[in-house]
Design brief:
With 503 residues, the chain is α+β, with helices and mostly antiparallel strands. It folds into three domains: 4-139 and 147-156, GAF domain (Beta-Lactamase), CATH 3.30.450; 175-267, 2-Layer Sandwich (Beta-Lactamase), CATH 3.30.450; 272-405 and 413-497, Histidine kinase-like ATPase, C-terminal domain (Heat Shock Protein 90), CATH 3.30.565. The chain has twelve helices and 18 strands. It binds adenosine-5'-triphosphate and magnesium ion (MG).
Length: 503
């Protein structure tokens, strides 16, 4: 679908500031559609002066009424005679009202309003509704239509859309949320049924009409600021945990003179309550990670105690290896306990993992330098835990097997290094551990490896991460490269997919 920017640059000679102005209009014109119970269209005119054409730049349907147009018409180009009223409005640069009969039974009422900026007509806003629906049937309709007319006048004087408009993060309020019309003295002239409900929540049960806006509890400054800054002002009031209301104030002007305002009010009490719950859930999750880490440390201590009582060296070694593996998982929980959410930058846990392995390098005669390159980005907690165990095994293997002490007890290799390389791409993650040691044994085949370390690695990488692993000699030079590939599909958390703005 073509954007406003595409359409204006393809069909009109509007400059960047004029297009930005139309963007602002489209950012808040849902309000105008709601107030007029009708479809609104935005037309631009082509630059070609010999045979100008009209281009439909935008369309908004009302949430207060039914649309006449189900199809998406945006981007259509019309000859001027097919939309003569719009062309007329462009030519005269003033509001034109009329009827058209072609498209709807009983005819259409059309109101074309020039969108003027700094004296120049940059577009035309057209309101279209069935003639049969043009007669207002209630006080509410009459009020809304009159407010629409005030906005239309501001539109052609270049006072709407407002400059430097304050914007809500997620959703502009619609008229259905609750509308208060305030007069030039700051008294409430009209309140829609939903606005009345909001007033009730604020403890105002009668005498809403005629009350001063400052007495509603919605904040005294919002009106004042809106008039002073001549633009929309958004405010949120919260009374304890019981009630939270967002108000969105649109000041109305007759030339320089403020004539009143509409304030859209929305009850967000329930939303804020959910926000608070989410926040406290986050702290709960962190607390859980903290406890898991503590429990893992307790398990390690128990195993250590038991290990000390064992006489068989083999059994002792096995227990101490388990302690090391548990240590790797504990590192992840410690990091998660400190992080604000459930995802962590993997690189942050590589250092602590290296430390776990370093502790097992008993002989100071065999120093090994560890080096981390690249970045793995943010990973979900579960993937991080799995990869942490995998990485620890690979590091441990490098330390255990790559740099054997020479049988004659001679000088150890100096310059033993182990590099951890991380590479995150759009198609996945590569994690490699490269050492400059003796390389894998000649007859080594990963498929046949029966050691516990590589069995854990294979199970985790292939089973849990849906990835692959290779272990081979360094191509040029000496040493071993262990390379783990994880596909991108496994690197996103459940949260990433389900994330949606709440308000
Ligand atoms: N970086 C390396 N350099 C040289 N040989 C390696 C390297 N990594 C693995 N190997 C070889 O692969 C074998 C299998 O490794 P694996 O981790 O499965 O078992 P292990 O280390 O012998 O025992 P465990 O990990 O259960 O304590 C090792 O015994 C070693 O021969
Ligand atoms: Mg091993």
């Amino acid at each position: 679908m073509a954007t406003l920017a595409d359409l204006t640059s393809d069909h009109t000679d509007l400059d960047a500031e004029q297009v930005a102005y139309l963007h602002d209009l489209i950012g808040s014109w849902g309000l105008l559609a709601d107030l007029s119970f009708a479809d609104l269209f935005l037309y631009g005119r082509s630059a070609d002066s010999s045979e100008p054409t009209l281009i439909l730049l935008g369309h908004v349907r009302p949430t207060t009424g039914t649309t006449l147009y189900r199809a998406d018409l945006v981007g259509q180009v019309f000859e001027q005679r097919r939309r003569s009223l719009i062309a007329d409005c462009f030519d005269r640069s003033e509001t034109v009202a009329g009827t058209a009969n072609e498209e709807v039974d009983g005819g259409l009422d059309i109101l074309a309003v020039p969108v003027r900026r700094q004296g120049e007509t940059v577009a035309v806003l057209a309101r279209e509704r069935a003639s049969s629906q043009s007669r207002p049937s209630s006080e509410q309709e009459r009020t809304y239509l009159k407010v629409f007319e005030r906005f239309a006048t501001m539109l052609q004087r270049g006072q709407f859309p407002y400059r430097d408009e304050a914007r809500l993060r997620h959703r502009t309020p619609r008229v259905g949320d609750g509308l208060l019309l305030v007069d030039e003295e700051g008294r409430i002239e009209f309140a829609s049924p939903n606005a009345v409900s909001v007033m009730h929540r604020l403890g105002m049960h009668r005498g809403i009409i005629g009350a001063r806006f400052v007495d509603t509890g919605l904040g005294a400054s919002i009106l004042r600021n809106a008039f002073a800054r001549r633009t929309t002002v958004i405010d949120e009031m919260e009374r304890g945990n019981e009630v939270a209301i967002v108000s969105h104030c649109f000041p109305l002007f007759d030339r320089e003179h403020p004539t009143g305002a509409i304030v859209l009010v929305r009850d967000v009490t329930e939303l804020r309550r959910r926000d608070r719950q989410l926040v406290s859930k986050d702290t709960t999750i962190r607390e859980v990670h903290h406890r898991v880490k503590n429990n893992l440390q307790t398990i390690s201590s128990l195993l250590r105690l038991q290990g000390r009582r064992l006489r068989s060296d083999e059994a002792r070694a096995a227990l101490f290896e388990s302690i090391r593996r548990i240590g790797a998982i504990s590192v992840v929980h410690e990091t998660l306990a400190q992080s604000a959410d459930d995802d962590v930058a993997f690189v942050d846990i590589v250092r602590p993992l290296v430390r776990v392995v370093e502790e097992s390098v008993s002989s100071p005669l065999r120093p090994v330098a560890f080096d981390v390159e690249g970045d793995a980005g943010i990973l979900p907690a579960q993937v991080t835990t799995t990869l942490a165990v995998v990485l620890t095994e690979l590091l441990q293997n490098a330390v255990d097997h790559a740099f054997p002490v020479a049988p004659d007890g001679g000088e150890p290799d100096d310059g033993a290094t182990v590099a951890i390389r991380l590479n995150r791409r759009s198609d996945g993650l590569t994690l490699s551990v490269v050492d400059n040691g003796v390389g894998p044994p000649d007859d080594f085949r990963l498929e046949d490896a029966t050691g516990l370390g590589l069995t854990i690695v294979k199970t985790f990488v292939e089973g849990e991460l849906g990835g692959s692993i290779t272990l081979s000699p360094v191509v040029r030079g000496r040493g071993t490269v262990a390379e783990v590939q994880v596909p991108a599909t496994r690197l996103v958390g459940v949260r990433d997919e389900a994330q949606e703005p709440l308000a």
